[in-house]
Every structure is written in C-alpha cells, then in structure tokens.
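Box 3.1. Reading complex inputs
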Amino acid sequence: MSALPLLMDALGAGSVRVVDLTQTLTEDFPTIVLPPEFAQSATVRIERLSRYDAAGPAWYWNNLSFGEHTGTHFDAPAHWFTGRDRPLGTVDTMPAADMIAPACVIDCTEGTAVDDDYLLTREAVETWEMEHGPVPARSWVLMRTGWSRRQGAAYANLREDGAHTPGPDAEVMEWLVHDRGILGFGTETIGTDAGQGSHFSPPFPAHHFLHGAGRYGLQCLTALDQLPPTGAVLVTAPLKVHEGSGSPLRVLALVPGAAAG
Amino acid sequence: MQDPIRKNPLKKTRTALLPPAARSRKAHLLIPPAGRGEFALPRCAACGAFAWPVPEACPVCLSPDLPLTAAPRGGEVISATTAEVPADLYFRERAPWRVGLVAMDCGPQALVHLHPEAGQGDRVRLSLVLDRAGQAVLHAAPEGERDMASDPQWQEMAADPRRRRVLITDARHVAALPLAQALLAAGARQVWLGLDEAWKPFAGADAIRALEGAELVPLDLRSDRSVGDLARDLGGKVEILVNTADLLRPGMAFAPSVPAQTREMMEVAAFGLMRLMREFAPAMASRGADGTAPAAAWVNVTPVIARVPHPRFTGYGTAHAAALALAPALRQTLGTGGVRLMTAFTGPTDTDWFDAFPHPKLTGRAIATEIVAALKAGREELVIGDLARDWLKRHAENPRALEAELARGQY
C-alpha cells in the first residue's frame, strides 16, 4: 500500500503539520555584500506592472528580479569552485529525490545569545548525538541560532571588519560531510558559513566541503524553533534555473503535529 | 524668521501661473547663458554694437551676425514705475510689480524687472536670469552688495532655500551632510536625507541626526516601492529636491563584472531618477505657486563624466549619460509649474573611488556651497570644480584627444 494516503490522512488530521521555514522575499532583506571590486548579487526588486489601473485594468502583476542567492535560498554544488566538476551540480539537473529529506535541528541559541560569532563545533554535534542519536546520512543539518528574529542592520551585523554572524567551524563541516554523509547544511543567517568564514582554513568551510562533495546549502531559514531535533522532513525545491548555482525557494517542513501518536 | 503659514485645507491651492513665455527663436539663444548666470548679449560682429531686445539683424548696420558676447553689467535707471494692476494674470497675482527703463552701459535701453531699492537716476547692476517660464529676462538691482532675498521679484525667479523644505535623495553622498548644513544655514525649513539599505552601516548617520532640522528617511531609488512610499509621505511637501543618488564602480567595458555593475549603476542613476520623476515631479509642478514658499527647484548632481565619456568609467558614464537624457522630460514637466531643473556637474570628488585622480578634488562642502549659491541665483546649470570645467572645455575642442589622454591617465 502506498504511504501517500497515510500522509494525506495525517496532514488532514493534524498529526503531521506543515511549517513554512521561508522568509518573505522583500526588497529590503539583507543580501550578501562582497568587497566592491567583485560583482555583487542584485538585491530583490519587485516592479509593478499593473494593479487594476491604466497599465492593466483588470489584473495585478509584477516583474521580479533578484540574484540566485537572495532571500531564503538554496546553494547547489556548482556554486563553489570545489563543486564545479560534480555531475548534476546545478539546480536544473540535481536529482529531484534530493529535494525531500529528513532534518536534524541543532539548537545553538544559548551560544548565539552571547556571541555573534558563535561557531558550531564537532564536539557540540557529538553532544547533540548523545541525546538524539547519530546524524543520519543524507539528512539536512540545520543550525538553529534564533538569528531570523533579528532584522535589518542587526541581521546583517556588518562591522568594519565584515559580517559577524554565527556558523560552523571547518572541522565540523568536514566531519559532517565526510563522516556523517549529510545531504546539506542550513542556517538562519545570510550564508551557510559564519560571517567571518573567509578567515577560516579553508576559507568558507561550509561551502568548501558541502559543495565539493556534491551536497547542498540552505540559508536565511526561519521558524526553526518549530522543528523537533529529529523527525522533521524538509521539502526544498529550488527554481529550475538553467545552469543555476542556486535560487530563492520556499522551504517547507513536515513535522509531527499535536495529534501525532 | 517665521515659517510659512500652514495650508488652509478649505482653500484651493493656487494655480501655478507662468509669465508670458512667447519669444522669438533668436531670443531663445539667451536661455543658456541666463541659466549659467552669465551676462551675455547679442553684439554685432560687423559694427560692434550691442542690441536689446534680441533682434533678427543689427539695428545699426543690419548685419545678421549677432553672436552672444559677454557685456558690461552696469546701467542707469532712466525711469521706474510700479504696476499696481497688471493685465497679465501672473503679474497681477504678484502685484505690485516694479519695472524700470535702464540705459545699459553697453548701449541699448532695456525694460527690466527692478529691485525695490532702485529708483530713477540710480546706478544698477544687471543680471540675465530665467523667469518662471524659463525665459531669459533682465533684472536690475542697485550696485554694490544687495540683499536679493528682500526683493520679491528676484525671489520669484530664484529658488532660494529660505523657508523651503528640501529632500536630498542620498545621505551617503559626499556632499549630503554639507548640503544639509548649507541649506539649513540658508534658512531651509526642513531637510530630509534619504538612506538606502538601512541594514548597511552608515558612518554619517549620527552627524545628520545631530543636525537640527535634518532627518533621515528611508529611500532606495532602486525600488519602486521605496520611492513611492516616500512620495506618499513627502510628495506634497518637498519644495527643493536635490538628487545626490549615485553608485560608482569604475571599469573598462570589457571587464567581466562591468555589465552587472553597470546595470546596478543604471538602476540608481537612470531608473532611479525615472522613479523619482514619476513620483515627485508632477507633485512639485502642481505646487509651483503653493503658499509663500512654493516648490521651486529640482537639482540633479551629475558627474561630468556624463558629458565627457571616460574610457575607464564606462558603465558609470553610461548610467549618468542616460540620466542626463531624462533631463528634457523632467524640465518640461517641472516647467509647467514654473519649477526649475538645475544640473550641477561635478568633477572627481575626494572619495575612495577617485583615489587615482590628482588633487585638488572636490569636497562635499565645495559642492554644497556652489549649489546653494546657484539656487539663490536661479541658475539651471553649474559646473563645479576646475577639472570638470577643464574637461568640458577640452571635450568641446577635441573630444578624441581628450578621450586618448584620459585613457592614458593624463588628466
């Protein structure tokens, strides 16, 4: 028997809930800032075409423009040089089966409450595993920091020496990717790496190890506090952009509901 | 100084009438020098006689060759009168209106708009200035230092910041804070400064917040929504708009990052101006006679690279050249209400992006001082900085030579 009727029954009964982990795509949502010598990602633009007016009396629609890495977005392996030779490494060719996968949520809010540059370490994940079991292969690891509650300047947290936002250290990324075989890593901040990740070795370790192994990134997630440490299933389908390195997307989580037995 | 009386919501806003604008095509030649604040009159190339008003041929020798020539600005009032009930609607609304007949030192006699302190027999200094219809007219004030602010007729033609509310569109521009300071010192009632992407640090925020009469407001010219929202708040209040919005990324046309950077620069300089025009220009034009300090001027701070293409600033020049091409539409829209469009061409500024350029580079204070003076003088074009003036001159003489010199880094 197919499991799908059971799933639909569970959704109808509330024993499985759908949680939206997506930030609204707005024009003033912070976007990654690179040194100005480099090409910059376009920010989100929403240009009105008509709204029941002279430009279109009965209809409302907009033109949208944005960089691939704006808002809540997905990073494909081809995004980083380490993943450039991976087969099926862009959002239009990646396996659709990878777009539905379980998630482990690691609560780092205690650390990020006192340290903007908090780093997730292998030791912290191993402590988490002692309670919840090993991180399963082909699962997402989501770093819950509470950062999505911040807004504007506090969210970007740019200072004279760059962004100060939490992320994983290099050791934990290499270990998660190569020892645990995770499918991807997700954060509430602008990048999968810490704000100061360019100074790590290797630089931007999350990008380096994830994409080098053909794995994925998710960033600018929200509502991670509504997810259990284990047991949630993520639906992460990026736009099918030709040779796309990533895209904004709607991230949905299926979680056990109150009526779950 | 009293603020203008607030609007009586029960009364109709005064229609922005304009003075008579019909002129001969030859007389239109006076508009550019008047807009630049120069005093140039037609002078016969054959016999040397100055002429006024602008004739089709020299009234002395009938030569048709009458190039505009810098003229002495002095004169003597032959007669002065006050029109208490003029027939023309524009002047009637603003009556009494002083006019005088002046014998110009350069020869001709002229009917002029007359300063209230100038009377028969007085020596006067003449100005060629644009009136609210955008036509060049003569104004005479007593010689020596005069308070032009006390002359209501001059004030009609100028765009004095006194008692007006000003929007500076980009608080991050090097001239934004000095402009706010200079405008407030000149009597501006309120200065708003637009700040884009408030999530990015802005070191100048505290200095602006500390300035009495100045206020930061969210404004991102790249966003329809942002520009529209600010216009909903301030569209009916801005009497002078100074567009400082700018984004500079240097580069030759072929560098890989240039197309994306150019697009972003176009979004700020060209499409941004278009958004501003759409939201603010009709509102300002409709308020050209609203109250005692009506909408008066729109200033575009434009890098001279818009006029003098610089091979090392391809995208930047393209974006600002596109913005400059919007000026006629903007000028005509504003002109329906007698609101002036001023273009302030700037040379390289003393900022990081021009670090390879030789000194002296323009400071924000220099830009601010010249813009405020030009507003008070009712000008519609000014060039700020020796380098900018030099480039324009060399470009007019030999654009190819200048292009090659700029490419070699010879300024």
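In summary: Chain B touches chain A through 19 residues (CB under 8 Å).
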